[in-house]
Amino acid sequence: MIVVTGAAGFIASCLVTRLNAANFNDVVVVDNFSVAKKMANLEGKKIKEYVDRNDFFDWLEKNYEEVEFIFHLGARTDTTEMNREVLDLLNLDYSKKVWNACCEYQIPLVYASSAATYGSGTLGYDDDENMIPLLQPLNPYGDSKNDFDKWALEQTAKPFFWTGLKFFNVYGPNEYHKGRMASVILHAYNAIEENGSFTLFKSHNPDYKDGEQMRDFVYVKDVVEVLFWLMNHRKNSGIYNLGSGQARTFLDLTFNTFTAMGKDINVDFRDTPEDIRDKYQYYTQANMDKLRSIGYDKSFHTLEEGIQDYVQNYLMTNSYY
């Protein structure tokens, strides 16, 4: 059996699809299944068992001998969440319990970290583990992810194979439930459909013009390919970046969304909300050399390719992956 936590969410549900496509059908999904808006992500997938996240460790104690691998992708992913108790409970303490269980039962583990750990990027975006204690995230969410990375590296007891992945700006199908935290592509698509235009945040940094803030946007299908590869690789434990390796502007993203929809480009700008303005990342770009160095050689979608596939094969057809 393969366990996927956070399974009704965005990336994890796409991973279940990828596992099924490779004939891994004994997938155990773990989540808070009371959140009905996420459940459409799992419809039609081959799933062995649904386990509530609060019952998972009792379940694992009874079934660990049958578990081949754990993908721990469940987390509180709202970057505007200010309640550190919630973040510590779900992102730090729960992850520690998963880690310790994998050590006890000798189960390999891949877990989700985040590019939010890099903060403003003043120390760069290299996944050098020696730099992790020095990173200064811009929000409590980033702190919670970096705190677990630091804790994991400090442990003398480790799963025989483990990997933490610093996800950059992931976009693609199955993010429909995420509301404000969904990718700008989804927000752009909905706005363009509704009124034929889209409004981006202004830049409040003199080094960047409006709309020229840059992020490393990575297509979810590329993310799950890396996850699947790591499950089969099971060597070179550690913490790795997972982005496209190429920063692009929000204008690039928006123009490509208009183009994929066959619509005329019409972009406006508004002030960045004050609650995120001083915690806003103006540039991110994953250094992908470390993952490449251990043998991952598949190419990633360009932004143009990823947006075209997402818009035309999922958003325009109301489809899930």
Explain this structure.
The chain has a 7-stranded parallel β-sheet, sandwiched between helices. It has helices at 10-21, 56-63, 84-105, 140-154, 184-195, 220-233, 250-261, 274-277, 289-293, 303-315, and strands spanning 2-5, 27-31, 49-52, 69-72, 109-114, 162-167, 169-171, 198-201, 214-219, 238-242, 247-249, 267-270. Helix 1 links the parallel strand 1 (2-5) and strand 2. With 321 residues, it is an alpha/beta fold. The chain has a domain at 2-171 and 218-244 and 286-300: NAD(P)-binding Rossmann-like Domain (Rossmann fold, 3-Layer(aba) Sandwich), CATH 3.40.50.720. It starts with a strand and ends in a 6-residue tail after the last helix. The chain has 10 helices and 12 strands. Homopentamer. Residues 2-243 form the NAD-dependent epimerase/dehydratase domain.
Please write out the topology.
Blueprint: E1 2-5, H1 10-21, E2 27-31, E3 49-52, H2 56-63, E4 69-72, H3 84-105, E5 109-114, H4 140-154, E6 162-167, E7 169-171, H5 184-195, E8 198-201, E9 214-219, H6 220-233, E10 238-242, E11 247-249, H7 250-261, E12 267-270, H8 274-277, H9 289-293, H10 303-315
Parallel strand pairs: 1-2, 1-4, 2-3, 4-5, 5-6, 6-10, 7-9, 8-12
Antiparallel strand pairs: 9-11
Helix pairs in contact: 1-6, 3-4, 5-7, 7-10
